[in-house]
Amino acid sequence: MDFDLFVIGGGSAGVRCARIAAGHGARVGVAEERHWGGTCVNIGCVPKKLLVQAGEYGAWADDAIGFGWTIQKDSHDWGKLIAAKDREIGRLEGIYRKLLTGAGATVFDGRAVFVDPHTVEIAGKRITAENIVIATGGYPERLDIPGADLGIVSDDAFFLKTMPRHIVMVGSGYIAVEFAGIFRALGAEVHLVYRQPLPLRGFDQDIRESMAEALLAQGIILHPGATPEKLEAAGDRRVLSIGGGRTLTTDLVFFATGRRANVGGLGLEKAGVALNAKNAIQVDDQLRTSQPHIYAMGDVTDRVNLTPVATAEGHALADSLFGDNPRTVSLRNIPSAVFTTPPVASVGLTEEQASALGPVDIYLTRFTPMRHNLSGRGRKTTMKLVVDKATQKVVGAHMLGEDAAEIIQGIAIAVVMGATKADFDRTIGIHPTAAEEFVTLRTRTRTTDLAKAAE
Asked: Which residues are catalytic?
């Protein structure tokens, strides 16, 4: 065989797996056909957060007057922001390539396609490997409605030549609400169109309700319960029909309606790799596909589609195969964040999920952050603990508010370790901070078994 390990995909999962395996002494090859660093670095979470931060600077300038500063704001220069973003992403992409070559991996620029279970072909060259990893990620999809190709998806948003002054976001997941906040903060009129009654399906109910309020407070126009039916062109503008005879005329329609595993054109049938019901690659808890020597990880498996999960899976597999340290990655208690304005972060179970397993105690607080008592901005913070009634373990922590992701990252350590509510209670808070609320929540808001009894 040419390689001990060949990795298809140079994103977070693939780069980490290839780099660690090469560090263990394996002969490693890795192929990437588009962006080294994958979606997250190039057209995902990294550039998106830079755009979020751009919007925050404008808000801080507005808020400064409450603290005695008068800051004059000119109109935002979208072109300058995108150019700065491109420079930073170019720097990061170069780092990812250097990480691989520095570790001793052989890098291939091009699309790798299976010829048989142990062979891939790149630009006409055939390469054999003892073990193969598929880490090709995912891609955004449009709604299956007439005229959908007249809208854009998240891949396109980072390369817009000009910023639209009026935009319709379709969807209410994390990508939709994040980009809605970005464009609104940079001065656009933003409409958010979604089928659900509340945004962020799958998140805790109190957080979803707080998010709807936060979006409205930003001036984003919400259209819950709306079903997009067709998209048409009207000159340079777009007209979206959303049911009930209603239409929205806009400069740009942005579909943020889900992602699919990137499995097309890989020749999986020649390798004997099976897909699951979601058309993603089926794996076991060792990341093995239906072919024992072929593995898959990250978004292409459509399990928990988060960059740190993909990175952890890559590291664990490399250690298992070549580091004499077999291990797996737990998919329980994975912290995550939504970089809206303000952001959301959570770890563990929602109230609904925990209640399905047994009675829980709920501790909930909502307050105006100290900063905004002076700025006058109508912004609230929501913080919540979900506690298993029988064991008093904290099984979920959820927050919407400034610095939520930074705060929940630390709280996640406690949740993963199995901390109890008493552990939180005896921890001294740092004052004055929002984070201290998590260790000063003394009054129980409700208990789910009592609520059921009352019903």
From this structure: 431
As a whole number of angstroms, the distance between CA 107 and CA 259 comes to: 27
Is residue 101's pLDDT more than 70? yes
CA–CA distance, 142 with 137 (Å, rounded to integer): 17
Give me the residue label for tokens 């500063």.
Answer: 69
Tell me the C-alpha distance between 310 and 300, whole Å: 10
Report the SS3 class of residue 21: helix
The two structure tokens encoding residue 438? 């998590």
For the chain, what is the radius of gyration of the CA atoms? 24
Distances (CA, A) of 391 to 359, 360, 387, 439: 10, 10, 8, 18
Tens of pLDDT, residues 273-313: 999 999 999 999 999 999 999 999 999 999 999 999 999 99
By CB neighbour count within 10 A (0-12 exposed, 13-18 middle, 19+ buried), where does 410 fall? exposed
Nearest alpha-carbon partner for 177 in 218, 232, 225, 137: 218
Quote the CA–CA distance of 351 and 343 in Å, as a whole number: 19
Q: Can you tell me the distance from the alpha carbon of 164 to that of 37, in angstroms, rounded to the nearest whole number?
A: 28
Q: Taking phi first (over 0 means left), then psi (-120 to 50 degrees means alpha), and beta for anything else, what does residue 105 get?
A: beta
Q: Cα separation of 138 and 202, whole Å?
A: 20
Contact at 8 Å (CB) between 416 and 333?
Answer: yes
Name the amino acid, one letter, at 134: I
* Spatial CB neighbours of 452, under 8 Å, sequence gap ≥ 6: none
Residue 150 near residue 232 (C-beta atoms within 8 A): yes
- Residue 122: which of 2, 26, 27 has the closest Cα? 2
Q: To 10 degrees, what angle do helices 174-185 and 205-217 make?
A: 20
Does the structure show a pLDDT above 60 at 451? no
Contact by Cβ (8 Å): 67, 374: yes
Encoded tokens for 228? 């997009």
Tokens matching residue 448? 């789910």
Q: Which helix (H) or strand (E) holds 265?
A: none
Strand locations in 83-229 (E): 106-109, 112-116, 119-122, 125-134, 138-140, 166-170, 189-193, 221-223
| pLDDT more than 90, % of the chain | 98
Domains of the chain: 3-140+260-322 (3.50.50.60), 148-257 (3.50.50.60), 336-447 (3.30.390.30)
- Report which DSSP code applies to 159: T
